[in-house]
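Fig. S4 source data, part A: sequence.
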Amino acid sequence: MLVPHITFFFLIMLRSCSSIDTIGVSQNITDGQTIFSKEEKFEMGFFSPGTSKNRYLGIWFKNTSPITVAWVANRDTPLVDSLSTANFDSQGIMSVVNSTGSIIWSTSNYSSAPKTNYINPILQLLDDGNLVIKEGNNVIWQSFDYPTDTMLSGMKLGKNFKTRQEIYLTSWKSADDPSTGDYTARFLMVKGKYQQVYVYKSSDIVTRIGPYNAIAFAGQPNYKANPLYVYEVDMVVNDNEMYFEFMYNSSTFSAKFIVTYEGKFEIWQLTLRTHQWIQDLALPANNCDNYELCGPYGSCSTENFLGCTCLDGFEVVDEQESSDDFSRGCKRSKALDCGPKEGFRLLSSMKLPDTQNASYNGSMNLIECKEACKSNCSCVAYANPNMNPGGLGCLLWFGDLIDIRVYPINGQDLYVRLAASELSDLGSSFRKKKQVVIEVTVSVSAGLTLLCLILAFYIRNKRKRKRKLDTERQRQVRALKVIDKDHNNSNKRANIEVPMFTLSTIMRATDNFSINNQLGEGGFGPVYKGVLEQGQEIAVKRLSKSSRQGLDEFENEVICIAKLQHRNLVKLLGYCIQDDETMLIYEYMPNKSLDWFIFDNSRQSLLNWPQRFHIIHGIARGLLYLHQDSRLRVVHRDLKAGNILLDHNMNPKISDFGLARMFKEHESEANTKKVVGTLGYISPEYAVNGLFSVKSDIFSFGVLILEIVSGKKNRGFVNQDHHNSLLGHAWRLYKEGKSLDLLDASLDESLLVSQVQRCIHVGLLCVQQRAEDRPDTPFVVAMLGGEGSLPSPKQPGFFIQGSELSSSSSSLPTLPSSLNGVTLSQIQAR
């Protein structure tokens, strides 16, 4: 009868002291009890995930809602009731026992340590989330050696070559089922091979994160860690083991790497003060992240509508069938013969090929690396993977080069072996160009005259640049003075319909622009939350000194957009021009932006279908006001999920009118050489010809509808069955009569099927290729209201059929890529 007394005592102890992190022999954890790590960052106990009624023993981050699980013990043997316990015995073994007394999970099944009686073993939950069984300083067993889907700071991912134990992440089966899923994230576990991380679906690679460039894994080129929570990656490779771990020392933030049940590799940061998760990275982010998408010697680029191209010196294998078919990759245009004149072509800004068929030498410099490859006829390419200044390292590839892509940011140099004739063709072309330059130079002037011309040209350009900068500064000063003057001139005050705030007022409201009040940052500059003295909450958009477009946006919003008043438009409360500060003051939207909800796996379920339809309808009403009911017709030109803000009642409000254009009553469209907007939302006629109208906004609205319904982004949409964007995917499902398959899986059953189908239908009507085929705004509002029958939609813009662009979009230009979803400009549109 001793054990029950100890268990009862332990139950009282757990409930009376929330900081218990250690239990001893014969102490049990029953369902309903939890233990905390010493600093209460982690909690351990029994839980039920999501809507599941099954019970599991697990570890989760404390005080997050819903709970964020980091480790599950009995993931494949769930408990069916709450009458279970976790027992700890004198052999240093923890077991999960069900209501019938049967052991359904035990640490003894995962440990190579001999079963013996220990003097004083303990079970302890550490502050890094590691559950350890130890005697003194001897660790008998630890959960870090047997992770589930989550990697925490200090955990190793890799392989011990002596024990043959592999440590890798395995996804959950679904959001509500932690059992072993289809996806795994593994560090390259082959002895002697170069470091990479792969995401597998069963035995097939779906994403490659790497190779390691001595700073980070190259599979995250646009990732910029916040300096407030920098972590370090530690790489260990020796005869005994190879692994990597990330170390994260912060009292303000926590972090996790995770492989999701959908097959994504994600990095998340947890703000310990607010207990809010922030996603830093999610891969795959676009089609080019799909493993070996372009086949051998093919290269993928997100700046290319076709995605795939062949490396220099290579051509499509099945060119006789289609020059755009990369199903079998590319082949050499001219075969290698291992002759002395063979050489290497430099390819810059690349993600280096898969290193499974490469060898590595960490002591070679680049010249030695080249010689090693040149002297081996089987070597097809070489590179230095080390991005540290002056860092040594040599990768030599033998066999096909696969899974290559272009990285405009943080890309590396790759040297590919080519036949002598390929290189001579390049040299011949260069010599011809050089000859032309010489002939032109000689015909224009002799040496001294040419030198004088160059000098004169340099001086003139320098003066021209100075005049341009001076003109720009004068224009900015003049524009700000005009706005300020108009505000204080009683005859022109009608031009400025919002008040001017003093700098001191805004500084008090934002606590001197405290970083704790910063809501985010866009192309204009940072945005801060503030509270005026009378208690009104505001959002302050502060013009960044490095912003080139900010002043134009400022003028546009203060002079023009301030006149617009509608319940579905964000209200501009005022502005501030003082010293070198330029700011816009808006009403504060407590529920952030639409993309914060619909593109986040943990928050998608917070928006049910009635709310989503309410948001769709509200955006349409706001567009109707801009396009028809306001004093001047307004084309927004940057309608996207990030520019739809949500008030406390989840009412949508269109924001950010810095790129908007006003039309007079008789005007319907305009043309520009400067295409502005956000990729994924820009209409075809605007992207190709610079032609914009209200139908450009209708196209963007159609994209928004499909994104709201599906919970997926149009740009970067990934589907394993085809390479279409979200628009193409929706079109395929519509043609197959499966439109409801587009629906966000997080939505519950509280929806009207006919309403969802109508929304998808309207969305496809709005994104049709030809502007004249798209409905006007009043018709869109009427259709969403359920009025009348719907016409059949035609093919959407930017639709890709198979691996070929449709004829209607084959002339589309290559648009610039986007970082962090900010607004971009494309100069000199066709």
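Fig. S4 source data, part B ends here. The chain has a mean pLDDT of 81.
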